[in-house]
Specification:
Blueprint (H helix, E strand, L loop, with lengths): L5 H4 L18 H6 L63 E2 L3 E8 L18 H4 L7 E8 L9 E8 L4 H4 L9 H4 L2 H10 L1 E10 L2 E4 L7 E3 L5 E5 L18 E3 L4 E6 L5 E5 L16 H6 L31 E4 L9 E3 L11 E4 L4 E7 L3 E3 L1 E9 L15 E5 L5 E5 L2 H12 L6 E8 L4 E6 L16 H6 L1 H8 L4 E2 L1 E6 L6 E5 L26 E7 L8 E9 L25 E6 L5 E5 L5 H4 L5 E5 L9 E6 L5 E7 L5 E7 L37 E7 L8
Parallel strand pairs: 8-13
Antiparallel strand pairs: 1-30, 2-33, 3-4, 4-5, 5-6, 5-7, 8-9, 10-11, 11-12, 12-13, 14-15, 15-17, 16-22, 17-20, 18-19, 20-21, 21-26, 23-24, 24-25, 25-26, 27-28, 28-29, 29-30, 31-32, 32-33
The structure holds MU-OXO-diiron and calcium ion (3 copies).
Length: about 700
């Protein structure tokens, strides 16, 4: 019997078990706002929905553990949604499944060679030097930047992929029977883990209906936690609380950690959000100068053995290192030599993502959830405006010329080099993210939403509360937001603006502590105690202005099983027994403005849905509003990440994260913990001795059409 202590080795899918927001007592404001009689949150087609109308639908049941092709589970002749694919049945088995009529191609896997000189994948010999040149572990966010930059080319581009964390016990051989797994980890293993974090930039193109890596691409790049230097910029850069012995300037960090979701800017840079950075730091906090700050981030809670081999991860040896993580990192994929930059103006917390939209006035707005129970929802509004990129494919001919009037009044035109124009636009945007205002959301019970500015000197954000500068406000964003009266939410994950409708969708994944044991009570936006299933929040900015101080909110769905009255789920009655989901996480909007939601149930999948995670199309408009349909599901133990469409909507890239890891004790026929030697699945290789490998898939429709119809 294995003695592997997974709690020590693996930051399990849900590292957010311990809420650290101390706001457990309602403020006077809360008491005034909170009332027992809730307004009807689900209007229109959803308004009449109680458990009753769905009672006739059969609950989903776990399918047999086979990799056989699945037929369509259901199809509705009266489907009120804009999605035309046949659903796949709920279930769990060793492999992935996509809707009939579609194909899912494995594009790149953990360990695949990426940079020149990279050796082939060899899981028996952990090797940081090799890993630095290979695709990293636990792919999460996926961005797609068409080539050439500024075009909408959907058959040639750069994939920007985050590598969030490592599953030590599934990555390395020989740990399953170790008495003290942390002690059994070698320095080579630890360094390999650091090198497997971060991100990858991968040039890809489509030919013959298949996507391919471009071998030897000059764009291919690894960003990792072992060696990649990263610059700190913005208001907190250089602050004494960011200085370390290795970096007395407080402006230069090695690496980025726990890169969950992210975003792509309009000028073609890649934003990597640092989420659960606390997992890497060991040490005690007693008498620590950053005790209050670090406790609020959940430290110490080291789940990795890194501090044994790298003293910068020991809080007592290097007290400020943990202040250098929890930021949003901007990477320029078009210059492999360009140093990534941590943009401190966007605040320091457990950023789930950083999806952005250009506001009507030209400013960029970046939305970001702080993924922990009872944490908050944020947006950042730049001070300056975005300089748009010229589109090399569609720019009118005259746009390629610049005019000059000579002394005699004669007009001369000169053709301007497109590359120079693109470079000029990019340069104009280069430091746009260093200046602007960070806001946190307060949701009223009346459906109103206020964005509260996190600005030093305003309200309680003063020296009296320990904020001597804007740098202090940004370093301790969570504490500042609590003082402002932000609304503690049910774990805000991805936040996705829909550029076609102007609405914004927030995945609130779950919160088992809501309303329990002295934790904050329910409110209309977080309406269920012991919420295991999550909800999708919809925000409508005032007059379409994403920079405005106010907005309105509504709940699109309350996730979970609609046939179980105890769950109190809310779906459009057109949602089938296979279509409802639990624990919304990453999401994407397709080029037609339709929402697609990926789920992350962690080890709770046997309870929350009875099936594996997947991708669900979720109608937001018309009579089908609130109807979900299952499009794709992952192999056992995996989480669904990264959905991203090409601009033509004909390819959907998805990231299968930590296959074989979560909840395998409940996997029929396996029913034990998964290890390197004995994994619940060997997806996607299914080869002896090869462990499961996190991988990115490219989904296309067999007839070449648009995903979802
Ligand atoms: Fe990295 Fe909140 O998921
Ligand atoms: Ca996630
Ligand atoms: Ca997203
Ligand atoms: Ca999650």
């Amino acid at each position: 019997m294995s003695t592997l202590d997974h709690a020590k080795l693996d930051p399990v899918a849900d590292p957010d078990d311990i809420p650290v927001n101390p706001a457990t007592e309602p403020s006077l404001d809360d008491l005034i706002q909170r009332r027992f009689g809730r307004r009807d949150l689900l209007r229109g087609a959803l308004g009449a929905l109680a458990a009753g109308p769905l009672a006739g639908l059969a609950a989903g049941t776990a399918a047999a553990a086979t990799a056989e092709p699945l037929g369509p589970a259901s199809s509705s002749p009266d489907d009120p949604t804009r999605f035309d694919f046949p659903e796949i049945p709920r279930g769990v088995d060793a492999t992935h499944h996509v809707a009939p009529g579609y194909s899912a191609q494995v594009l790149i896997r953990w360990g695949d060679p990426l940079l020149p000189g990279a050796p082939p994948f060899d899981p028996q010999r952990p090797n940081a030097a090799a890993q630095r040149r290979q695709f990293g572990y636990n792919n999460d966010f996926i961005g797609y930047i068409p080539l050439p930059l500024g075009s909408s080319n959907s058959e040639h581009g750069l994939l920007c992929v985050n590598h969030e964390y490592t599953n030590t016990g599934l990555m390395f051989p020989g740990l399953a029977d170790a008495e003290d797994p942390a002690a059994a980890l070698t320095g080579a293993m630890v360094d390999t883990e650091l090198a497997a974090h971060g991100g990858s930039i991968v040039e890809i193109h489509k030919a013959g209906g298949q996507w391919h890596l471009v071998p030897g691409s000059r764009f291919n790049r690894r960003i990792e936690a072992l060696t990649t230097p990263i610059r700190l910029s913005g208001p907190a850069a250089g602050h004494p609380r960011l200085r370390t012995r290795a970096d007395p300037t407080g402006t230069r960090v090695i690496g980025t950690l726990n890169n969950c979701a992210g975003g792509i800017t309009p000028w073609g840079t890649y934003l990597m959000a640092e989420e659960n950075f606390h997992l890497y730091f060991a040490g005690s906090l007693d008498g620590h100068p950053e005790q209050r700050n670090y406790a609020r981030c959940g430290m110490p809670a080291a789940r990795y053995a890194w501090a044994r081999h790298h003293r910068r991860f020991d809080l007592n040896a290097e007290p400020n290192e943990a202040n250098r993580f929890g930021w949003v990192v901007e990477v320029d994929p078009f210059d492999p030599q360009a140093m990534p930059v941590k943009r401190t103006a966007l605040g320091r917390f457990k950023h789930e993502g950083a999806e952005c939209i250009v506001n009507g006035d030209g400013r960029l707005v970046i939305y970001s959830g702080d993924d922990q129970r009872f944490e908050f929802l944020y947006k950042f509004v730049t001070a300056g405006t975005v300089t748009p990129l010229p589109n090399p494919a569609s720019a009118p001919a005259e746009a390629s010329y610049v005019g000059r009037i000579d002394a005699g009044g004669q007009v001369h035109f000169r053709k301007q080099d497109m590359r120079r124009r693109i470079a000029a636009a990019r340069a104009a945007n280069r430091d746009l993210l260093d200046q602007g205002t960070l806001f946190v959301a307060r949701l009223g019970d009346d459906g109103g939403l206020q964005w509260l500015p996190l600005v030093h000197g305003h309200g309680p954000l003063t020296a009296a509360n320990g904020f001597d500068s804007q740098a202090d406000v940004l370093i301790e964003t969570r504490r500042a937001a609590t003082l402002l009266g932000a609304t503690p939410m049910d774990r805000p994950e991805d936040v996705e603006p829909n550029p076609l409708t102007g609405k914004v969708y927030v995945s609130l994944t779950n919160n088992k502590n809501r309303g329990k044991d002295g934790y904050p009570d329910t409110d209309p936006a977080n309406p269920r105690t012991g919420n295991l299933w999550g909800q999708v929040l919809e925000i409508t900015p005032q007059d379409g202005d994403h920079a405005a101080d106010t907005a309105t909110w509504d709940l699109l769905v309350r996730a979970g099983d609609p046939t179980d009255p105890a769950v109190a789920a809310h779906w459009n009655p057109a949602t089938s027994a296979d279509g409802w989901f639990a624990c919304p996480d990453n999401c994407a909007v397709d080029p037609s403005g339709r929402l697609w939601v990926a789920t992350d149930q962690g080890g709770g999948w046997p309870v929350t849905s009875g099936g594996a995670d997947g991708i669900y199309a979720l109608e937001t408009e018309g009579p089908g509003r609130g109807t979900a349909r299952c499009f794709f599901r992952v192999p056992v133990g995996a989480e669904m990440c990264g959905p991203r469409f090409t601009p033509d909507g004909r390819t959907l890239f998805v990231a299968v994260q930590h296959p074989g890891a979560d909840g395998t004790e409940a996997y029929p026929g396996f029913e034990r913990k998964s290890t390197f030697e004995d994994p619940a699945t060997r997806w996607p290789d299914f080869a002896d001795g090869i462990p499961p490998r996190p991988s990115v898939l490219a989904i296309t429709r067999n007839d070449g059409g648009v995903i979802g119809g």
